[in-house]
Give the backbone structure.
Amino acid sequence: MKNPFFSFTLKTTIILCIVFGVHLGVLHLLQIPLFENKIVLSYIVNLVLVIVIFGALYLLKKKYKSQLGFLFLAGSFLKFIVFFILFYPYYKIDNEITRLEFAAFFIPYAVGLVLESVSLSKWLNKLQ
């Protein structure tokens, strides 16, 4: 029997690495500097948060199965707190958040959110 946490971690890491490569490829094609806007930190932080939140949900899924949705929302709230602590002050230095800054944070955030949502949905269907 394969370990769902390990499978999720591996799948998420691979997918976010691919998305990161595509993101850098698009920036390169558009002749935009590749490693600005804290893009590397954004992908790393989002990957770590997704794995930690998934792990917490996985560990708590049996004991708190009726509250998993709320725990998932708490995880999303945690991601926003991290954004406002780590990224927002840097992005607002010039009093404007550019599309590139937004994309640097939002793309890995959205990919992680989709992966978490799909996994949580599968669990909830199996637990019923």
Notes: The radius of gyration is 16 Å.
